[in-house]
Amino acid sequence: MGELQRRRTVVAAGLVVGACLGASGCAGTGAAADGAAGADPAAVVRRSADTLVDAGSSKARTSMEMATGGTRVTIRGEGVYDFRRRLGRLTLQLPADPAGATPHRPITELLAPGALFMKNRGAGVPADKWVRVDTATLSDGNLVTGGATDPYAAAALLRGTRTAAYLGRTEVAGIAVRHYRGTADLAAAAKGAPRGVRAALAAAAKGFATAEVPFDVYLDDEGRVRKVRHRFSFVNAQRRGTVAVSSTTLLYGFGAPAEVRLPESRDIYAGKIAEERGPA
């Protein structure tokens, strides 16, 4: 990677986070039984990523809350995801500036194996161009940088579950689910992840303040993830402190069309991205 491209990637990597810190299985055939209190909770949770691949696709809602300097900011997103092709499209809404300035324009993100494409983000980037970031070069593997955790990466992280407890039945958006709470290890998750996700999780294992990630996950009677919340912790060099991040992914509408078309080379911005300080 050339020096100019390297600098461009580093700047793009901080676009979303930097702005915000400044501001098929079948029930009854084993899947349902897996969630019973007598089953091994850690083993049940580890299998959930494979169950999503079997489901094919879904709609998704995301929420990422960051706490820094006594201030909490939340980024919300909504879109679709294809778990077989590992392609997704999300529209993110950044929070309004503390001073009450005009809200940010929604950011469109395309998620692909090894890459994050962003539109409407980056000073000096033409409105019709995309910014491309290699997720393996990000210290968090794009679990945090993009303002939303890639839904498949969120599930793949559960492959590294070390400990888990079954907390009982509840509901998520009117769907009966089983609630599990535990801790996953990023390094272990990376070893068991498919190509394209493995490098990103391995980068996160080295880049976060700790490779241990606490989680709460809610699985339906077919073993599919309906909701998962991870709690990440990373070091903010600018503020010389640790930033707590809570990332929540809600999956619903399984089987929904998830057509995602990645940008052509001519549509990707190749110029210099101005570094932004504070909310854009």
Short synopsis of the structure:
The chain has helices at 3-13, 15-22, 31-34, 41-46, 48-55, 151-156, 186-192, 198-207, and strands at 57-68, 71-82, 87-93, 107-112, 115-119, 131-134, 161-172, 175-185, 212-219, 225-236, 241-252. The protein is of the alpha+beta class and 280 residues long.
Oligomer: single chain
Gross morphology is globular
**Which spans have pLDDT < 50 for at least 5 consecutive residues?**
1-13, 21-35, 275-280
Q: How much of the polypeptide forms β-strand, as a percent range?
A: 35-45%
Which sequence of strands runs across the widest sheet? 6-5-4-3-2-1-11-10-9-8-7
Distance between the termini: 28 Å
How many β-strand runs? 11
How many alpha or pi helices?
8
Order of helices and strands: HHHHHEEEEEEHEEHHEEE
Compute the gyration radius: what is it?
A: 18 Å
* Overall average residue pLDDT: 81
Backbone structural class: alpha+beta
Overall helicity? 10-25%
Taking the sheet with the most strands, its summary is: 11 strands, antiparallel
